[in-house]
Fold each of these.
Amino acid sequence: MSIYTGPSMLRLVRLVRPSVELRLGAHDELRPLADAATSGDLVAMRTLLTAMAPQILRIVRRVLGLRHPDVEDVAQECAVELIGALKRFRGESSVQHFTCRVALQTAMNARRRLRTAKRSIPADQLCDADDTTHEEPDAEFRATLRAGVELVRQLCEELPSAQAEALALHLVLGHTIAEIAAICDAPIETVRSRLKTARASLMKRAWDDPRLRELLEEP
Amino acid sequence: MSKTDPTDLLCQARRQRLSTQEQRALAALLRASPEARLADILLCGFERESPIQRGDDALSSRLVEQVLVRQLRPRTQRRRLFAFAAAAAILGAAGAAAALWVMPSSRPVDAARPATPRTVASLPRARGFASPPTATPVSPVTSTSAVVPSPTGEAPMHGKLEASRYRVASATLDASVPAETASELFARANLLRRHGQSEAAIALYRQLLGKFPATREAPPARLALAKALTQSQPGAAIEQYRLLSLDPGPLQAEGLWGVAELARRIGRTELEARSLTELLRQFPDSPYADVARSRLNDDHR
C-alpha cells in the first residue's frame, strides 16, 4: 500500500490486487505444455492459451486502455503471435516471461498502428475504469492519473524499442528490475541503464505538463 | 531481487510485501523524490486499467477458440494454398524472364539518380517483436530544458544529476540570455516557477503566448499561467482558463474545469454552473465529469 504523507496530499492509493509475480529461477511448469503445443498438440495449446489469456488481456488493456474497442482483437493478435513465436522459443526465459514480452510488443505495435490509422474512438468508450471498486479521491487526481498514463503510452511509441520495452515493463506492468532482466534476457545493469534513460525522458515531459507538475513539486 | 532499489520498492509495495523498514524507506523516498512520486502514480494509473471485468471468462474462452480455429485450418487446404502460391510464383518468374528476353532494356541508366537507401524504417517489420519507432525518439534531457532537482535540493531517485545539468539550469535562469524558441521560453518559465520566481515566470508565460500562440507549448503554458495567477489575480486566472477552454487542444477540459473551480471560489455561481454544464456537454467522460454532475445536482436542489 502506498501512502502519501504530505499534508496536502491525503490520497490513499489502495492496491486492487497483487500484480502478477513471475517467480524467478523456479521450475517452469508451463514449459512442457509449450513444447507440446509447439509440436501440434491442440489440447496442450488450448490449455496453455487458457492459462495465458488473463495475462494477455491484462497487458493489452494496460497498453491500449480498459475501454478501447480493439482490446479483444489485439488480444487475439497477441495469442496468435504467441503460438507462432513459441516455435522460436529456446527456453531463455520462462514461458510466462516469454508470453509477457510477446504480448507487450504485439500490443505496443498494435497501438502504434491504430494511432497511425487515426482510428477514431467514440468518446463514450474512452473513459477510465469508472466502475472500479476503490474510492475516487477527487477529479483532479483522476485527471492527473489519466495524464500520466497517456504520457507513458505516448512516450513508449517514441522511445527506442529497448527503452520503451523496459519502461513499459516497469511502469505499465509493474515489474521489478530483476523481472525485467529475466523477461528481456538482458543483464540487470543494462536494464537499469535503459530505465534510467527512459525515465529521464519521462521526467522531462512530465515537468512540462501542468497536470503532473503539481504532483512533482509537492514535497 | 533488490527491495532497496527504488524501482523495486515501488513495485513490491503494490504487492504488499514490504517490511516495516522498507515501508519507512518508501515513504521517505516518496517525500524526497518527484520521480518516485510520478512512478507511484503511474503504477496506480495502469493498475486501474486492468481490473477483472464481468465476462472476462467468456472473453478468454473466445480468444482461445479463435486461435485454435486458425490453427485447425485443414492441412489439405494448406497444401492446396501452398501449391497455388508456388505455381503463381513460377509463372510470375517465367513471365518476367520472358519479358527480359524479348525486350532488352532501352532505358538510359539514370546515373544521376541515387538508389533509395533502405533504412531501418523501411524494412518489413518482424512479426511479434518491436518495430522501429516511426517518430523521432525523444532525446534525453537537453541543454535547454534541464531536469531540475526537487526544490529541497535532495538528490533524485538515481543519484545526483550530472554537474552539467546544474550549470545549464543556472544559465537558463539568467534573464540576459535570450530565449529563442517557444520550447526554450517554456522551459525557462517552468524553471523560474520551480525556483519560486512567480512574477518572472508569469512574464515569460505571457511572452510565450504572445509570440508563439499556435505552438504545442501554448496550451500548457496557458494552463501554467492560469495556475500561477490563481492566488494573486483570480479574475485574470479565470480569463486564462476561459481562453484555454476555447482552444481545441488537449487541455480544453482543464480550461472549463479551471473556470468552474475559480468561479466557485469567488462566488460566481452562475459562471460555475455554465462551465460545468459545458464541461459535461463536451467531455462527458473526463475525470471531472462525476464531480461536475454532482455539483450541478446539488445546486439544483
Amino acid sequence: MEPTPARHPLRTGAALIGAVALMTACGGSDSGESSSPSTSSASTSSTSSSTSSDTPSESQPAAEAVITISDFEFSVPDAVPAGAEITVTNKDDVGHTVTADEGDTFDVQIGPGETKTFTAPESAGEYAFHCTPHPAMTSTLVVE
Amino acid sequence: MSRAGELTLRVAVAAALAVDCIVHLELADAIQLAAPGGIGGGALFRGQAIAAGVAAVLLLLTGRRFAYILAGLVALSAFGAVLLYSFVAVPAIGPIPSMYDPTWSDKKLISAVAEGLALLLAAIGSLATRRRTVSSRSRPR
C-alpha cells in the first residue's frame, strides 16, 4: 500500500511546526536586540581610567577631537569646541604627556600605546602644551 | 703629571660626574613617565645618579687610579646610553624598558657633554696615575 499524506501525520506535523517557527522568526526580527553602531564603534581602543573620564561612551559628536602622538610629534585638530572631550592616542613605544605650559589647565599622562581623554578648557583661546619627559615636543591647542 | 695638575684633573672629573648626577636626579621623574615598564626609567636614572655621585666622591677622596677607572666606567655607561637611546629605537630588554628619545632638551645635552668630558678626563687621569705608580715603584729604598 502506497503511503498518503494522511498516513504520515508526523511529517505533516513537522512541516506545520516548521512553518509556524519560520513565521514567528520573521515576525520577531524588529524586537530591538541589534546593537547600536554608534556605541560599538566609539570605544574600540583601550582607555585608562586614572585621571581621564570614565563615563561610558555615548553617541559621539560628528567632529571628534583627537590628538595623535606619533614619532615624538603631536598632531592636533585645527580647533576644538570649548569643553569638548578630547581623545589622545599615543602610538609611540614610550610614554608621553599632554601638559599645558601655563597653570594646571590640563596634564594628561599617556603610556605607550594608550588612549586617554580629557576635557578641553571652557574658555576660548590658544593653549600651548608640551610633553614633560620630552620638552622638545610642543604644540598648541586652539579652543573656540 | 704634576700634583697640581692631577688635582685639577681630579676636581674636573668629579665636577663632570656631579653634573651627571644632578641632571639624572632631576630627570628621573620625567623619564619614569616615558619609560614606566620593567624596573622603570626612573629607577635607572636614580641608579645612574648614585653611581656618578659615589664615583665622584671616591675620586675626590683618593685620587687613585682605580677611582679614575671607576669614574670612567660610570661616565661611559651614561654617555653610551644617551647616545644609543637617542639614535637607536632600542626596544625593552628584560627589565630595562624602552627609553628611545630622539629629542634633545637642554638638560639632556648638558648631561651628555658632562659625561663625555668625564669619560675623556678620567681616561687621562687613569693614564697619569699609572705613570705615577710606576715611577714610585722604581724609586730606590
Amino acid sequence: MADLPHQKTTYSSMNDFIKGLWEENPVLVQVLGTCPTLAVSNSVINALAMGIATTFVLVMSSALVSLVRNIVPKQVRIATFIMIIATFVTVAEYIIQAISIEIHKALGAFIALIVVNCIILGRAEAFASKNPLMPSIMDALGNGLGFTAAIGVMGTIREILGNGSFAGIDLFGPHYEPMIIFILPSGGFFIFGFLILMYNIINQRRKAKQ
Amino acid sequence: MTPSTINPSVSDSRNNMNMIKTLTGIATISGLLIVCAYTFTLPRIKFNKAEYLKKACFIVLPNTVRTQPYKVNPDGTITKLVTEDEKSQKVYAGYNANNELTGIAIQAQGQGFQDVIGVIYGYSPEKKAIVGFKVLASKETPGLGDKIDVDQEFLNNFKELDVKLLPDNSALAHPIEVVKKGKKVNPWQIDSITGATISSKAVGKLLDKSTSSIIPIIEKNLQQMKEEK
C-alpha cells in the first residue's frame, strides 16, 4: 500500500531532524564546526549558550536560504548565504544582549564567530539550498541540537576535569587540583578525539546488534 | 554550445542583472532585519546596561547605599547630573547610610588582547587608592584572558591599589605597574595572571591612563562632592 503524500513528508521530515542528532552528527560525524566546539567547550554554560545561539542562527538561516533557493543564481550563492548568516548572527547578538547582559558578557567574542561556523554554511549549501522549507527547518533543528549535545558533553567533561566544577558549581572542594590541561586547547583536542572514538565504538556495537 | 556562446551579450547581461538583483534584494532584506532587531531591542538593552552599571557601582564602592552621577566638564570642573546625559564623561559619587562620601566609581576603557576592555573601578579619597574593580565588557580569550574578571588573586590586587598623586596633584606619584605573578612588592603594582599576561598588562595600562587624568580632577572637586551629596 503506497504511503499517502502527507505521511511521506512527515516521515522524511522527522528523519531529517533525527539524523542530525546521531547518524550525521555535525561535530562527531561530519566534523564541522570544530572551532567553536574546541574553543567554547571549556565550560558547560558557555557550551550550552553557544549551542542554543548557533541553533537559532542555523534554523533561521536555513529557513531563509530555503525560501530564496530558486531565485539565487549559482554564482552568487555563497555570498548570499554568508550575508543571510551574518544577518541572523547580528540579530542573535542583539537578542542575547536584550535577554541578559551577563550571558552576553560570558559569550563575549564567540557570538560573532558563529558566522564562521562551518555547520551553518555547510547545511545551507548541502541541504537548505536544495530542499523545501519544512525539511530544511527540521534538518537545521536536528543539526543544531546535535551540535549542542556534542559541545555540551565536551563542556561537561572539560569543566569537571579541568576546573572541578559543573556549570560553575564547585564539585570537589578546594583541595581538588584541577587538571588545567583540559581547559587548554591541547586538552580540548584530546577530549574531542576521545568523544569521536566513543561515538564510533557505540555506533559499531549498535550496528553489530542490528 | 551554451546559450552564452550563441548570444553572448544578451544572456550574459541578463545573468549579471539577475545576480545584481538577487544580491541587492538579499542585502535589503538583511538590512531591514538588522535595523528591526536593533530598534526593537534598543530600549531593553539600554535599560539592561544602566542596571548593570548601577549594580557595578555598588560592587566597586564598599558600604555604598546611594550613587550620584557627576558630569566631568572639559575645564576640569564637575556638575551634578540630574537627567540622563549619555554623551558626557561621568563619574559616580557613592554615599553611605550616613550620607558620607564613600568613594567615586569611574569607568575606563583600553585595548586588550582581542578588543577593547571596559571596566569600572572605585576610588577611595581617604585611602588614595583603588578599592574596587569590575570588568564591564571584554572579548578576551575565554579560559585565559577572561580571568581578569574572575581570578580571585588578580582581583585582590584592587582591594587597595595605591594611586596617590604627587604633591602638586598633577599626576600619579607612582604609575600603575604590572609585574609577573608573585613579584608584587609595592602597593601600586599589579600581579599579572599566569597565561594571561597581555590582558593583565592591558588592565594595568588602562587603569594607569584613566587614573592619571581623572584622579587629579576628582581631588580638585572633592569638597564639592562631599558637600553637594
Amino acid sequence: MTHEILEHTADVKFRASGDTLAEAFTSTVDAFAEITGADGLTSTSTLEFDVESEGLEALVFDFLDRMIWLQDVEDAAIVEAESVDVRESDDGYVLEAVVEVAALDRASGLLDLKAPTYNDMVVERRDGWTVEAVMDV
Amino acid sequence: MELNKVGDDVYEIPKQGEMHVPARVYASEALLEEISGDKTLEQVRNVATLPGIQKYSVVLPDGHQGYGFPIGGVAAVDARDGVVSPGGIGYDINCGVRLLATDLSYGDVEGTERELVDALYDRIPCGLGKGGYLSTDIDDLEGILARGAEYMLEQGFAQEDDLVRCEENGRLPGDPAKVPEEAKQRGVDQVGSLGSGNHFLEVQRVTDVFDRERASAYGLEEDQVVVMIHSGSRGLGHQTCTVYLRRFERAYPEIVEALPDKELMYAPIGDELAQDYLDAMNAAANFAWANRQAMTLGVRDSLDDVYGDVEARMVYDVCHNIAKQEEHDVDGRRRQLLVHRKGATRAFPAGRREVPDVYGDVGQPVLIPGSMGSHSYVLAGGERSLELSFGSTAHGAGRLMSRTQAKKDYWGEDVRDELEGRGIYVRAESGSTVAEEAPGVYKDVDEVIRVSHDLGIGERVARMHPVANIKG
C-alpha cells in the first residue's frame, strides 16, 4: 500500500494504491491524514462509518466527503485507518471503515479541507488498484 | 483552439460545435499566457454549451482552472429556461470579502502590530476545529439561514450600517429547510470562524488613493487603517454544495453522461431540485454573511481592547461565489437572468438599483484581496461592466505555484521573518500555511487590476498594504 501527494496548483491532490480496492482506500486514509497534517498525531479513539455509492468514482467522492464531515462534526482529526472493507452490492458498492482519530486541538494547525471533487479523479485497476483525487482547500 | 483578439485586452473563442454562444476572455497578453497554461480556455468553452446561456461565457483577468467552470468566470443563463450549476458557484458559497474602515491612522498602529495581531488571533478561530467567535445553537442557525445579517442585527451583533453597506443587505431569500442536515451539523458551531487555505483577516494601511471622489464616498483616505476579511460559508456551505452535486448526479444521469466534465453538472431552473438548490444556496450565503459579521464583531472588540474606543465602520461586503437573479440587457432587450459568478465579483456602476443609495452616484465598491504580503485594492463598479461582463470583475490573483511546491521553496518561518522585516506581522495556525501562501506563489494582482480598470469593468479607487495578518 502506498500513497503520494501530487502537484496541484490551487488545491490538494493525491494518489493512493494497493493490491486490493480495500487497500487502495486504506492508503487514501493515509493520504488524507498527511494532507491535513494529522498523520503524526497519536490517536485516542476510533470512529466507524459506512458509505454506499452507485459507482467507484462516487464511492471515492462520498468516502472523502464523509471523512471531511466527520472531522468537523466529531471535532476529531483522522490519523489512520484501522480497517477498510469494500464490497459490491446490488446498487453499486458498500464501504465499511474504522478510522483512528485524535481529539482536535486548534494549536495543531491542521489543514481545514472544504470538500472532495471529481476533478482529475482516477479509480483504475492496473497492477492492483489506484485512486487519485483532488480536494478543495 | 481558435482564439481571436477582438479588442484591447479582449479575446474570443468563436461559437462553434456545441457552444450556444462565444466565449470571452478579458486579459492582457501576459495574463493570457498564464491563462493558456492550464485548462481555463477549455473550461470557458465548455461553459458556453450550457442550455440557456446568454451573450457569452466569460473569463476575467484573474481566470484560472477550476472544477468544471473556470475560477474567475461568469455565466449568465435565462432565468426561466436556463440551468443552474453548483460548479458555477463553487463549493464555498458566498466566499467573499468585507472591508471595514477605522478611525485609526497608521501612526496610531505602528509599533503595536504584534499586540494587534495577537489580539485578533486569540479572538477569532482559524483552521480546522470547532468553535466560532459567537456561540450558536440550532435555533440561531435556523435564524441565520433564513435571515442572514438581519438575524445578526436582531441579536445585537450588527449595526444598521453593516447591512446597508453589504451586497444584498446581507440577506438572500434562503430556506433553512432546503439546507441538508449534514451541512447544518458542520456549520452550527462555526459562526465567526476564518477557515483555512487562502482565507485571511488582514489589517491594512491605505497607501494610495487613485480616485479622490470615490474614495471620499467610500470613507477612505491615505494612511487610514482598514481591516479586510476574506472568508465564506465554512463547512455548511461546502457540505451544501457537495450534497446537491450528488443529488443532481443521481437525478440527471443522462445529463452527467453527456457532459465533458462531471463538475459542470446542472439542473433545469424550472425543476424542483434546481429550486431546492437555489433556496439552499441562498441560505448558505446568509450563513457566510453572518460568519463575516461575527468576525466583524471580533475585530471591533479586538481594536477596542488594544486602542480604546475605535470606530470600525463597514465600507462594503462582496460575494465572489454566488448565483444571482438579475436584470441585464441582451441584444437590446431587458432579460431576467441567473448570473453565476465563480471567483468573480459583482461590479455594478452608478445608477444601478442594487447599489446602496450611499454609493448611488459612484458605483459599488469592489474589494480585491491581494496575496499575503502584497497589496489589496478597492475598485468601483465600472461603466462598461454591464456591457462586457454582466456587471462583474475579478476577485483576486490566482495561484502560480502549488502548495506542495511552495512548501519546498519557502520555509514558513523565513517567510514570516521576511514579512516582519517589511513591517507586516503574520500569525497562522501553522508554518506550512505561511509557506503555502507566500507572496511569490500568486500571480501579479497589479496587472489584473490594470486590465479591469482599462476595460472599464472595475476602476481603481484605492490601494492598501498589509500591516498584520491572521490565517488558518
